[in-house]
Design brief:
The protein has 8 helices and 2 strands. By secondary structure, the chain is mainly alpha-helical. It has a single domain, classed as Growth Hormone, Chain: A (Up-down Bundle). It has a two-stranded antiparallel sheet. Helix 1 runs antiparallel to helix 5 and helix 4 packs antiparallel against helix 5.
């Protein structure tokens, strides 16, 4: 399997997972953790109409923002470089994100701020795992950049530039996967399924699976 296909499949899976976990947190606490623009925008409007109830929202958004930043910082420290390199420990990283989600699911009901912090930490780490691949900026926890990149590549294709299909398929696939992740979580919420723990279990399985697969790929290349 070539690296482009791995990036597309892996990126889409991560976008789906981030949207799924984020929907679980939104339904549980009212605060998104995979993207903060909407919450910060809403908060600035609420502050102009200050009331004691706004303090809870302020703490939740501040916790999500700080934890997301901390997660990205940790990714920079442990992964070292934003350019995708399949030899880096992505499997262990994804498993670690899954563990954070499982911990969040365990505490979020009684300690919402802790749950928000743990999930935002995982999302920030994920979003910074590999942010560049062959000229494409990869973002798997929010869509603004992906819509921008898709629009640019489509516009360049319309102008007659030679844009490879995979450069269009990658942002389009990430956008669709994020949408489907949120939609699936919303539908499953009505069944009583714990969305955050389900996301955590999925991440752990995916991380372990990729670690096993990666060792197999590099073992074959060594012969």
């Amino acid at each position: 399997m070539n690296s482009r296909r791995i990036v597309l499949i892996g990126g889409c899976a991560l976008a789906f997972g981030a949207a799924f976990a984020n929907m679980g947190l939104v339904l549980q606490t009212g605060t998104s953790v995979s993207h903060l623009t909407g919450d910060v925008g809403r908060l600035t409007l609420d502050i102009t109409n200050w009331s004691p109830a706004i303090f809870v929202d302020l703490c939740q958004v501040a916790t999500a923002a700080f934890s997301f930043l901390l997660g990205a910082t940790l990714a920079g420290a442990f992964i070292h470089h934003p350019t995708l390199d399949l030899s880096r420990p992505y499997g262990r990283s994804i498993t670690g994100i899954g563990i954070l989600f499982l911990l969040s699911a365990h505490v979020v009901v009684k300690q919402p701020l802790a749950g928000i912090g743990l999930t935002a930490l995982g999302c920030g780490f994920q979003n910074a795992l590999a942010s560049h691949f062959r000229g494409i900026i990869l973002r798997t926890t929010h869509l603004t950049g992906m819509f921008t990149d898709l629009g640019i590549t489509l516009g360049m294709r319309l102008r007659g530039h030679d844009i490879p299909n995979w450069k269009i398929a990658t942002p389009a696939g990430l956008i669709l996967s994020f949408f489907l992740g949120g939609l699936t979580a919303g539908l499953l919420h009505h069944t009583g399924l714990n969305l955050i723990s389900t996301a955590g279990a999925g991440y752990c399985a995916a991380g372990i699976g990729w670690t096993i697969k990666k060792h197999g790929l590099f073992r074959k290349k060594s012969f």
